Every structure is written in structure tokens, then in C-alpha cells.
Amino acid sequence: MKTIYKTLKFSITILILISSISVFGQKNLKKAEKLMDKYEYSKASKLYEARATIGKASDTDIRNLTECYLQLNDTKNAEKQMSKLVEKASANQEDLKLYADLLKIEGKYDQAIEVYQKLEDTDYAFAQIKSLQKSQEWLADSTVYFEIENLSKLNSKNSDFSLIKFGEKYLFTSDRFNNLLSTNNKWTGTPFFKLYEVEIATDTEEIEVKNIKLLDGINDEYHNGPGVFDEKEQILYFTKTKTIKHKQRRTNVDPTSWLPDKSDEVFTDRLEIYSAKLVDGQWTEITAFEHNKAKEYSVGHPALSPDGNILYFVSDMPGGQGETDIYFCEKTANNTWGTPRNAGDVINTPSKEMFPVIEKNGTLYFSSDGHLGMGGLDMFKTTGARANWTKPENLKSPFNSSKDDFAILFSDLDGETGFFTSNRDGGQGADDIYTFKYIPPPPPPIPTELILAVSTWERMDDGKLEIAKDQINVMHCEATDPDDKMTVPNVGPGKYEIKVNCESKYNVNGFSPEFFAIPAQTIETHCESFKDTVFVQLIFERIVLDKEIVIENIYYDYDKANIRPDAAIELDKVVELLVENPGIIIELGSHTDSRGSDAYNLNLSQRRADSAVKYIIDNGIDKDRITAKGYGETRLLNRCSNGVRCSEEEHQLNRRTEFKVTGFIEGMGDVNLKSLEGDNIKVDKNQEKSNR
């Protein structure tokens, strides 16, 4: 009885504990949703992460946590969350689109292409796949000799971006931790963005950075920056954030309370432009831009034409081309700014255009995720003025990456040195400032590091491609010496890389006991830059016993079994497959539709199968490796059985020729028999020849 009492007491304790955890979890879930409503994504993400840790996260929780990560610009963790929905087959089309976009941003181009192929929005998918393929070409065939380095002496663990010239000094925007700052942004949990000034010496062997300090007289309580400085007029145009409070209807009003419930207040951050004049080292005349309208939309990221008479900026005001567009205003006779006008659909897209920069020669540089790009925000350049621009040109690699790249600043008139901002992998913080320097190409021959990058894929039953999870023995050899094969080292799931020579020809292939062998690919290498990459994609079909594989385009004349020339072309592919895979034994099956008697169709299909097998044997394949089987109309693929009216297309689906692997020859082709063992396996231990 005492034991029963202890057991009962223990069970009740566990039930109370589980109930408490459940109630606690539900409270935190509601709290997380409320925090998201108030744009406090940093705090909300912690609650969703805790829920995910104990395995309680629903599909909605995963989507909300992903949204939090996106608002915190943490695309790496956002991609991981979306992969969970995909793995559990809970992803809808919107989820797949976001997942593909995140894979692109994370530089996982091959996986992104695979997911884009599953989208029903084929126009969007086609544009993105084209963009990714072009990006791979840019990465592989870059002919621009620029050296990119992280300006580590300036960057912090937080965001540092948008370096601009400020007399003999520079200004930049940062949310770095500073002892002078006490308030943090509830959205991100980090300090608000502030404008800093810094001295940077670029005329020394190594860039020197010193005297980083807050810009006096400009920064206020919330976000400040980025901006642009008019050297001639000594005016700084800069971005500030204005917080707009929205009243939200309370769902549980307490009529006994006289105090306002601030938890129901929702705030929106909107951008505004301000200007300030520098007089004797002091900022004066801090003035709001005439076209600020924070209750309705944002304006920010100011840029100036070389003569200072046109102000370009970014806005999400109504009537634009997309999410954010580039606009401009012209200076009037009384030194005010005229009516804002859209810079046009040549540069603006349905997506985001941001961070405009006008160089001294009038060239417009800006960032966009709507034009053909490598992922995230890419930098582009265009020439023109106002609303008339040439087609934007992508700055390509190494200026652009799969992440956000923006705010370029040239430190010379030739465009050979300067700075830009990126949150690419390998940096010090969220956004970092990078330097670039043009390195003239050496005289031929160019000393180049050339990488052969091979990706291995498996074609699934639905025709889609997935990264091959099995280890593949990837080999390469010079085409002039095909017997001297070398292994390509594995560097990650489905990825193999090795250094190769320029101006050479290579054969590349992969082998695995789990997959059908494939023909070797021949590539030619040409080097035009310091570091190039040549990409090769190998696609494999898994060997599955008794899995029927249709041989496409095998047609016979009416009531005939002889092999037509068009059918011979397809059967030659079967011959090639058997030659490349000397360890497999196959059955070739022929099927008819239901028209005609059952016995006649069975006989006709057998004659056709025999005819196809004879053709294959006559082309050098051992007769013990292939059998013929006529199935007649016994294995219809649709409803079109005897007496059912069907279209010609429906009947054609049943008239097919297939093959399937039925067994293996021991010792031939390195087939992994153990991994394929099953009740139906057939191993011919006496077969010792492959008749290649």
C-alpha cells in the first residue's frame, strides 16, 4: 500500500508539473505575440526560442520566430527555422518562397534553385533561378582585380555602415555600445543608431583609424544616420527616426482602473530627413525636410548631386514602384526643396531600392534586391539624372555577395580605392565597413588559383533535385591522361573541391555503389583573374530494386514489334547504362493499352519486349544480364481498362516500355549488395564478365 501511495503521489506531481509547464508556455506564447505586435522582436525571439527548445513549437511559432529573426536581420537562423517547416512537410508556397530567398541570401545557390523549382509562381522562380545562375557565373569568371578587406580597426561587434566624407574626416552610422548611451532599441535589443566621426588615413601603407567619437550636436534619443555632407554649403543632410504611437483597442478593459495600460500602445518607427549647417565647428539651423510625413510614410538615406541642386532620397510613399523607391527633389530659387518625384522604373522595381550615392562624376550608385542580383541587397551603378537613367549595372563579385552590400564611397576620382558596407560572412559584426583597392593584373601568364567545385545531386521520384546525402567518390583527370584519376576531396554535404590548372581540359565523374553510374563530363579551364572557380554539377539516380523506370519515346508501328530508328536511339541509352553499370541485371518490360483482347495484347507486348532485348544483346550486352517480359494490359497506369472510353493521350500513357533492376553480379561494378539486400534480391555469383 505504501508503494502504491508513493507511485500515486509521484504521478500527481508529474501531472501538476506538466500542467504548470503548459500554462507557463501558453502565457509566454501570448506574451511573445504581444511583443511582436509592439515590434519588440529581440524579446519575442527569446520566448519563441525557449518554446522551440522544449519541442513545443507549432508551425505558427516557427513562422513567428522566423519573422523575428528577419526583423533582426539574422538570416542564418531564419533559414534554419524555415528548413524545419520544409523537413516536416508543413511548408506552404509562401513558406517555400521565403525559404528559397533565404537560401539564396545564405549563398546556398544550388539548394535555392531546387526550392525555386517547386514554386507555383513560375515567373518569380524563373527570374530567381536566372539570377542565381548569373551569380554563379560572376563568382566563377570574375575579371575584376580588386582586393577587399574588412576595416577591422573601425568595425565593432554591432552594425557599422554608410561611411561618408566629412571634410578631412569621415562620418559613419553605428549601433555600437557606448558608455555615453543608456537606452537600447526595443526592436533589436541593441543601442540606437548614432552618427560617429572618425579620422581615416588612407595614404599610408596600412590604413590608420583614430579618434572615433559621437558626432556632437546632431544625435538625439532615437536612430540617427545615415547622411550626406554638402562640402560647398557645409550642410549635413541626415536620417532620423520618429516614433509614431498608434492607439490599439484593448480587448480586456478594466473599468476600475484610472491608469492607462501602456502594454496596448503600439509604436512604428518612421524615417525623416533633417539638415544641419556647420558654423565655426558647431551645428546650427537643424531643420526638418519639407516633405517629411512620418504619420504616413518614411523618407531617408539622402544623397546629393555634384552641384548640390538635386536631393535624392529613399521613401515608401504611396504611388511608388515597389516597397521602397528612390525619389528626388530639385532646389528652388528660395533654397527650398521642390515637390518629390519618383526616379523612374528603370532603377526602381517592385522590391527595395536603397542607399543612393552620387559620385563626383554624376554616376548614381544604389542598392536593390529587385534587380538581377546575388542575394540580399546588391550594389548597382547607372548614369543619368532625375528620372532618366541607363539600365543599372550590377557591380558583381567581389563588391557584391549573397548578403546585403551597400553604401559605396570612392576615395579617388579613378574609382580604384574606397569603402562599402556589407553584412557578408566573416565580418566583425552585423554590418561592417570594407575597403577595396584595385590591383593591376600582372603580365601573362596570370598567377591564378583555380578551384574545381563539384556538386552532387540526387534526382528524386518527383523529378526534383536534392543534395546527395550519400558520399560520392568524385574523380577528375586530365583529358590527355584518362588513366591518371585523382579523388576530389569532400568539403561539405554534396560539395567537393580541388585546385586544378589553368588552360587545361579535365574529365570529371562520380561513382557510388548506391547510384547508377553516369558519363564523365569534360570541362575546359580558362583563367582570367587571381582566383577563379569552375563549377560542375553531377546528377545521380539511386539504384532501387524492382523500381520500374520508363524508357521514353519507345514507339512501335501498329501491330508491329520491330525496332524503329527513333526507338533505337532510346535503346542505345539502355545499352550505355548497362555498359556503365556492369554489375546490374535488368528486366525489360513492355506494356500495351486495353484495346484488343487480353491474350493478343499479352502476346504483342512479349514480342515487343523480345525485340527490344534482342537489339540490346546485338549491341554487345551479355544475354544473362537482361530478360524480356511482356505484361500486356495487366498493369495499366490509369482507369482505361476494357470498355472504358478514354482519350488517345490516356491510352498512350499505358503503352510504355520500362526496365527495372532485378539483381546484381557479384564482384562487378562495386555494387553495394549489403545495403541493397532484401527478399527480392538476386545475385548471380557465376557471372564473371561484363562484356563492356
Outline of this structure?
The protein is an alpha+beta fold.
Keywords:
single chain; 692 residues; alpha+beta; Serine Threonine Protein Phosphatase 5, Tetratricopeptide repeat; Neuraminidase; Immunoglobulin-like; 4 domains; five-stranded mixed sheet; 36 strands; 23% helix; elongated; disordered N terminus
Your description of this structure?
With 692 residues, this protein is an alpha+beta fold. It has four domains: 115 residues, Serine Threonine Protein Phosphatase 5, Tetratricopeptide repeat, CATH 1.25.40.10; 275 residues, Neuraminidase (6 Propeller), CATH 2.120.10; 92 residues, Carboxypeptidase-like, regulatory domain (Immunoglobulin-like, Sandwich), CATH 2.60.40.1120; 136 residues, OmpA-like domain (60s Ribosomal Protein L30, Chain: A), CATH 3.30.1330.60. It contains ten helices and 36 strands. Strands 23, 24, 27, 28 and 31 form a five-stranded mixed sheet that branches. A hairpin with a 6-residue loop joins β20 and β21. α3 runs antiparallel to α4. The longest helix is centred in the N-terminal third of the chain and has 36 residues. The termini are far apart. The N terminus and C terminus are likely disordered.
Write the layout of secondary structure elements.
Blueprint: H1 2-37, H2 41-53, H3 59-71, H4 75-87, H5 93-105, H6 109-116, H7 122-140, E1 146-150, E2 160-166, E3 169-174, E4 194-201, E5 208-214, E6 224-230, E7 235-247, E8 265-279, E9 282-288, E10 299-304, E11 310-315, E12 325-330, E13 341-342, E14 353-358, E15 364-368, E16 378-382, E17 384-385, E18 388-389, E19 393-394, E20 405-410, E21 417-422, E22 432-438, E23 449-459, E24 465-467, E25 473-478, E26 486-487, E27 490-492, E28 495-500, E29 505-511, E30 521-524, E31 531-540, E32 549-551, H8 565-580, E33 584-591, H9 598-618, E34 626-632, H10 648-654, E35 657-665, E36 683-684
Parallel strand pairs: 23-31, 33-34, 35-36
Antiparallel strand pairs: 1-22, 2-3, 3-4, 4-5, 6-7, 7-8, 8-9, 10-11, 11-12, 12-13, 14-15, 15-16, 16-19, 17-18, 20-21, 21-22, 23-24, 23-28, 25-26, 25-29, 27-28, 29-30, 32-35, 33-35
Helix pairs in contact: 1-2, 2-3, 3-4, 4-5, 5-6, 6-7, 8-9
